[in-house]
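The material for today's practical consists of a large collection of protein records. A record pairs a protein's sequence with a compact description of its fold. Instead of coordinates, the fold is spelled out as a row of discrete tokens. We will come back to this pairing of sequence and fold again and again. Here is such a record, shown just as it appears in the course material.
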Amino acid sequence: MASAAGARSRAIPTRAGRERLARKPRPGQRQNLIWVTVLGVGLMGLVWLHVWLRLQVVHLGYVLSTTSKLQGRLEQENRELKIELATMMSQERLESLARRRLGLTQPEKGQVIVLP
């Protein structure tokens, strides 16, 4: 008899038996699955947002570094151009150019007329 009982327990259940053996989700279990899914998707969204923000910080760091270097070069160029302008506009240089290139001299007395 033991072998007959064992044979019955090992037998493939009929269609009705399979339907009975299939687990039916409990009413609260489906709702829990939905909440777990929503929570998982939300957490993944937060992780992606965090990664994207970190990448933006790194990118903006590179942009800021490049901009700082450019600003430094432009400030240096501006200082050099101001020195060059001051050199070009110096009284001694202008007098020298006027004498050599244009042949100008200091005005004589009586050549300068002051208008009222």
Summary: The radius of gyration is 46 Å. The helical segments are 2-10, 15-21, 27-88, 91-102. Residues 26-100 form one domain.
